[in-house]
Specification:
An eight-stranded parallel beta barrel has the order 1-2-3-4-5-6-7-8, surrounded by five helices. About 45% of the residues lie in helices and about 15% in strands. The termini are close together. The protein is an alpha/beta fold. The longest helix has 20 residues. The chain has one domain: TIM Barrel (Alpha-Beta Barrel). It is globular and about 45 Å long. The chain is built from ten helices and eight strands. Helix 4 runs parallel beside helix 5 and helix 8 packs parallel to helix 9.
Length: about 270
Amino acid sequence: MLKCIVVSTPGAKFSALALKDDFKDSLKKVADLGYDAVELAVRNPKLLDISGIKELLQKYNLTVPAIGTGQAYGEEGLSFTHLEEEVRKQAVQRIKDQMDFSVAVGGAQVIIGLIRGTVYPDVERERAERYFIQSIKECADYNPKVTLTLEPVNRYETNLYNSIPSMLAIIDQIDRPNIKMLIDTFHMNIEEPNMIESILKAKDYIAHVHFADSNRWAPGCGHINFPEIIKTLQQINYGGAISAEILPEPSPEESVRLTIEYYKKLGL
C-alpha cells in the first residue's frame, strides 16, 4: 500500500488539508519525509500549469493515485444535484476536465465527494438522485478508462449517500465498470456501526482509502483502530494508496510528520 497524503493547489478554503500553500514546497516536504504518493486536491485543472506539475512529480518521484474535486462544490457551488440545470452542466464539465487532467498525470482516479451535491429542502429525494445518476453516468461514459471513485460522506456535510451500504446500492444502480468507491475512516467513524464489517462488505468496490482519525487529525491522534483496519485491508488484498486527508493540526508540518511516522508504525 502506498503512503500518501493530500496536497492541494494554493488557495484552498477546505480545512482538512495539511498542505495547501506553496505547491512546490509541499511536494518537496512530502518526498523528503518518505511518502510514496500525493493525492492532488484541485479546484479547476484548467487553471494549472500541468507540465510544471508533471515535472515536479517526476523530480520528487511521487505518483498521483487520486484527484480530489470537492473545492468546486465548496468554493463555487457546483454539484450534480443543483436545482439549476446550467450549474449541473458546469459540475459535469468540471469532472470531465478533471478526467483529462487525470490522463495527463498518469491515470489517477477522480474522486466524487461533495461535488455530488445534496438533497435540497423541499425537493424530493428521487429528483436529486435522478440528477446525480444522470450526471455521474455522463462523466463515466466520457472516458471509461478513468476511474470515478465515489465517497460516502457523513451526514453533517451532505444528506446524500452517507454510508457504505447506501453507496454500494447506488454504484450497482449506475452500473458502470469505471465507478468504484473511496472509504474514509473519519466519515466511517460517524456513519458505520462496524467499520470492519463495512470494509468487508465493500471489498470488491474499494479503490482508494482516506485515513484521518476520529478528530480528523493525523492517524494515531484519536481513537480509531487503524491496525485492525490495515489488517482488514490486507485481508481483502487492497493494494492501493492510504491517503491522509487531515486537519493541519497541531501545525501543517507536525501533521505531515505525525502521519508518516504512524504509517511506518503500521508497517506501510
